[in-house]
User: What shape does this take?
Amino acid sequence: MPYLGLIFNAMVWGLSWWPLRQLHALGLHPLWATALFFLIGLVLTLAWQPSAWTDFRRCRALWVLALAAGATNTAFNWAVSIGEVVRVVLLFYLMPLWAVLLAWLMLGERLTWAALGRVLLALAGAWLVLRPVDAAWPVFSGLPDVLAVGGGFGFALTNVLLRQQAHRSASARSLAMFLGAALLPGVLAYGLAAQGIIPSWPAWDVRWVLGAAALGLTVVAANVALQYSAARLPVQISSVVMLTEILFAAGSAVWLAGEMLTPTLLIGGALISLAALLTAREGVS
Assistant: This one.
């Protein structure tokens, strides 16, 4: 069951770009959709464990966790809705690079030569992923690239904070993540809509209402599956299984969106994945 839980979580996030784009086409921007998804999780968490709010309210570090989780989901969902799926997912999984630096700064972990080697691997992969065909230097092609890298940084910060706050109750940590992932995209969507940068909240339509409710419950189930599985498997195993998200995203993007997997992209993705695998192995040694 723990293995199936992790694969289910990876599948949900690897395929989430497609329903997000369908909802976007119906008028529900990814920011509004993300806020709605995690509002469902927030309500369910409070209904199931009302005491979680008391634990969360008393801990400032959990508020930082809420912001990190909110930034992660906001950036990732927006990026996969408007950018090249494979490119976005690979840049998001630069997470080992940020995790090494954040663990050094926040947890006092020593920077080893092995850790620096993983950073160089991830940077080399990013270089290839970001490098245009007709240029030698890597460049950000637009907002999706920036969001993908920022989302990966938020994901690394979330993981470091979860380790730092492991002594807190699981319900309080879940509440923090759901609250941040509902509040941050909601506030951002409201502000951007007021400036005319993104569409306002759409008129009620049974199609996007049912679609958003179904995807929201699926996202909540994926989050529960991740927490259940991660608590029962060694870190190196769960981290490796979670990388199957790249396979789900790449396969679906090629099949449904007609994206091309160039040799340069594949090599860059392999280097980034290798850095993630080595990080997972190092985490238990």
User: Anything to note?
Assistant: DSSP finds 14 helices and no strands in the chain.
